[in-house]
Design goal:
Elements: H1 2-13, H2 18-39, H3 44-59, H4 66-89, H5 94-110, H6 115-134, H7 142-163, H8 168-195, H9 201-229, H10 233-262, H11 287-306, H12 316-326, H13 338-362, H14 372-387, H15 407-429, H16 435-445, H17 451-479, H18 483-500, H19 505-522, H20 528-551, H21 557-583, H22 592-608, H23 610-613, H24 620-649, H25 661-681, E1 689-690, H26 711-731, E2 738-739
Parallel strand pairs: 1-2
Helix pairs in contact: 1-8, 2-3, 2-7, 2-18, 3-6, 3-7, 4-6, 4-7, 5-6, 5-15, 8-9, 8-10, 8-11, 9-10, 10-13, 10-24, 11-12, 11-13, 12-13, 12-14, 15-16, 15-20, 16-17, 16-20, 17-19, 17-20, 18-19, 21-22, 21-24, 21-25, 22-24, 24-26, 25-26
Length: about 750
């Protein structure tokens, strides 16, 4: 039991074990390289060169398939040999060496436009040139250094393909397990929210908010690996559908629990706006006993998520599953206030999503103990599965930018200018170690697209470097000149660097600097002045990067976020309008891929707003506005995903019928999204957001005796209503005019 719980926590904290695998693979490559070179009697500088080359050859490869990885690794060796040779040849020619270094940096960054392989080869070329400077490579040493590179690349291949192998199918399987673990953690957080007292409610809500975000993150990771990790397109579509169902059902259940606690309909923003207070609980007649049943059923739902067997003949687990799925039918709902009955319905829908996920991931299940309600749920799932095929990917040709407008070209020019400044400034600080400033300037441009992002990344690197220098002093004093003890500590620090890299850039910089302190010790060049110089060069490199980003083809953070905001709004309009059209009786089209495109666009915007929301930003009002806008968009995305998921069920679900009146209800939403996008793209736009009667009132009919709408249509209307209200709320912080209701 304890082992299972540990595995669950590890799977949830590191989805797919990506960080663990990256750390082990890199450490394995370095350790194997050191072992082989040690047996061959290599000198300490060559051991250091081999260790760094093995690390670079391992982490530079980003392709997902094994064959392309092998090709890139094979191409990387001649690139590394050429880079090392030029580094040694130009070491005594200062001007020529500096000019070549700038050209190399430009080419390495420009190579990112050619995809993962171009990025990897550029990274290998730059880093190996850096290695030649770090170890002071000379022409006479080149034959031995060629051998060192060959050993490093072979050991990197052995670590990648033999010691810590990774297949797309295996990675996808681990991601699925991570999704289950995070889903179970979210249900646990919802249980804590249910039991939280007045003083604990905000902390409990924060846990639910974090669990929801982490579940969504894992769903996006699975989406990115489906094509390579699934045998056929139909299976990929099935997994995608079931993951989306489970994600939406879990988030909706959290909202229903908030509503049941407060006896008021919870605002979706509560789950998306950081720091938003939870609705306060109010007592309702008959609530306490019903909430006890809710608590029992949430625990049962968590058991269903984690259980290794979906159903077993005569087991208590199958009885629990039957009870939860029974809540999908009105006659099986316990007697309780309406808000609590909605929670039971939400638990039933979540149980159905878990059942569908189990069938999609594990195959057919034992049906001998099915209740009638469970059998009906299976029939619905089977009907949905029967119509799922590869479909279209929903992607459209994007207009490709050219010249200096292309991001890779702009970044290459910027980093070349910044590196030139870093070389000049670095030479003034140290004629031997000026390249540290260039390295920092190069790194702050990686995976950044605006001046603000570069500023924040440079700040984090500087903080990590200062702390790493302090740690390096302590570690260098501890190991002295014990070569293999120092290398052992370097391996530990390298593993920590790769394991923490996706979590904290500051931590990664800390571990890198601490490891470099040990390498300086091995090269007999360690001193306090050297480590202080590293801090100075790092600060200089970060400053040069910021200057280049600010004055050379600058992309202001506001411009970058506005472009991404328009993209998010376009994706939101696409998903919403297509879903409403399908729910109104239009032709079935691909929706889940479009919903994931919306999620990815929103993730890009969230990353781009980090400079605006960082704690060090002095503009508090802008920080709060950015957080509020992103939270509103996350709320919109949730309701759009829910509409898309419901529309996907329309062809097969017997209780869902198209309602032509919905098209009229969704028209205002589409117009409002277009108005906001037009105003963000052009602040002089005269477009305005329109308000008016509730969405539900737009469906009212003047024909006597015409039924109003059923429960499913009512749910769709609630999503449309919240989407409509949120868009009006989004107009205000973006200064979009709100027109008076039309009469």
């Amino acid at each position: 039991m304890n082992t299972a719980r540990v595995r669950e926590r590890v799977a949830a904290s590191d989805p797919g074990l990506l960080r663990l695998a990256a750390g082990l693979r890199t450490v394995g490559a370095i350790a194997l390289t050191l072992a082989v070179l040690g047996l061959l009697g290599a000198s300490v500088p060559h051991l250091v060169a081999g260790a760094i080359a093995a690390m670079v050859a391992t982490f530079a490869i980003r392709e997902k398939q094994r064959a392309p990885q092998a090709v890139t690794l094979a191409l990387g060796l001649p690139v590394a040999v050429a880079s090392l040779s030029l580094g040694a040849l130009l070491s005594s020619r200062v001007v020529a060496g500096d000019l070549f270094f700038v050209v190399l940096i430009f080419c390495a960054v420009y190579g990112r436009r050619f995809g993962d392989r171009g990025t990897a080869l550029g990274l290998i070329g730059f880093q190996v040139y850096f290695v030649s400077l770090f170890v002071g490579a000379t022409v006479s040493e080149l034959p031995e250094l060629y051998g060192v590179l060959g050993v490093a690349f072979l050991c990197s291949a052995a670590a990648r393909f033999l010691l810590v192998p990774e297949t797309p199918a295996g990675l996808l399987e681990r991601l699925r397990e991570a999704f289950r673990a995070r889903l179970a953690q979210l249900v646990s957080a919802q249980l804590q929210l249910l039991d939280a007292g007045p003083e604990e409610i905000d902390e409990a809500l924060s846990d639910v908010r974090e669990g929801t975000a982490r579940l969504h993150e894992t769903a996006l990771m699975i989406q990115g690996r489906l094509e390579e990790g699934t045998a056929d397109a139909g299976a990929a579509r099935l997994v995608q559908r079931r993951i989306a169902d489970a994600e939406i059902a879990a988030e909706r259940l959290g909202l229903l629990l908030l509503t049941a606690r407060s006896a008021e309909r919870a605002d979706t923003l509560t789950l998306h706006l950081p720091g938003a207070p939870a609705p306060r609980a109010r007592r309702m007649p008959g609530r306490d006993e019903a909430m006890g049943m809710v608590r029992r059923d949430l625990e049962a739902l968590r058991l269903l998520v984690l259980s290794p067997v979906a159903a077993g003949t005569g087991t208590a687990l199958s009885q629990v599953r039957n009870r939860l799925l029974g809540y999908r039918e009105e006659e099986n709902l316990p007697s309780a206030p309406p808000a609590v009955q909605d929670v039971f319905r939400g638990i039933g829908e979540a149980a159905r999503a878990v059942l569908g996920l189990r069938i999609a991931l594990d195959g057919p299940q034992d049906e001998s103990d099915d209740s009638p309600a469970t059998a009906r749920s299976r029939e619905e799932l089977d009907a949905e599965d029967a119509v799922i095929d590869a479909g279209e990917d929903g992607s459209e040709a994007r207009e490709e930018l050219t010249g200096l407008n292309r991001p890779t070209t702009r970044a290459a020019v910027q980093v070349a200018v910044g590196s030139s400044l870093a070389i000049v400034g670095g030479e003034f600080l140290s004629s031997q170690r000026w390249y540290w400033a260039v390295l920092t300037c190069w790194i702050v441009f990686i995976n950044t697209a605006s001046t603000g992002e570069i500023l924040v990344k440079g700040y984090r690197r500087l903080v990590g470097t200062v702390l790493g220098v302090l740690a390096g002093i302590v570690l260098a004093g501890a190991v002295g000149q014990h070569t293999w003890s120092a290398f052992a500590l370097v391996l530990v620090l390298v593993f920590a660097m790769f394991y923490t890299a996706p979590l904290s850039y500051t931590l990664m910089s800390f571990f890198v600097t601490a490891a470099l302190g040990l390498l300086y010790t091995l090269l007999h060049t360690y001193s306090l002045s050297v480590l202080v110089l590293r801090v100075e060069e790092t600060a200089l490199g970060a400053a040069c990067g910021v200057i280049a980003a600010a004055f050379v083809l600058p992309v202001r953070t506001d411009r970058r976020t506005n472009e991404l905001l328009v993209t998010v709004l376009e994706r939101l309009a696409e998903v919403t309008e297509t879903a409403v059209d399908q729910l109104s009786g239009g032709s079935p089209v691909e929706l889940l891929d479009r919903a994931r495109d919306l999620d990815q666009a929103l993730a890009d915007l969230r990353a781009a707003t980090q400079p605006l929301t960082h704690p060090i930003t002095p503009l508090r009002a802008r920080r709060d506005t950015a957080r509020y806008v992103v939270a509103l968009l996350e709320t919109c995305a949730y309701h759009a995903r829910s509409l898309a998921a419901t529309a996907e069920l329309l062809p097969t679900h017997p209780s869902i019928a198209a309602d032509p009146r919905l098209r009229r209800a969704g028209r205002r939403i589409g117009d409002n999204i277009a108005a906001i996008a037009a105003h963000v793209a052009d602040e002089h736009s005269t477009a305005a957001v329109e308000t008016g009667p509730s969405i539900a009132s737009l469906l009212e009919t003047e024909v006597p005796g015409t039924p109003r709408f059923g429960r499913v249509t009512d749910r769709v209307l609630r999503h449309l209503q919240r989407l409509d209200e949120t868009l009006v709320g989004l107009a205000r912080p973006l200064h979009v005019p709100v027109a008076a209701p039309k009469r």
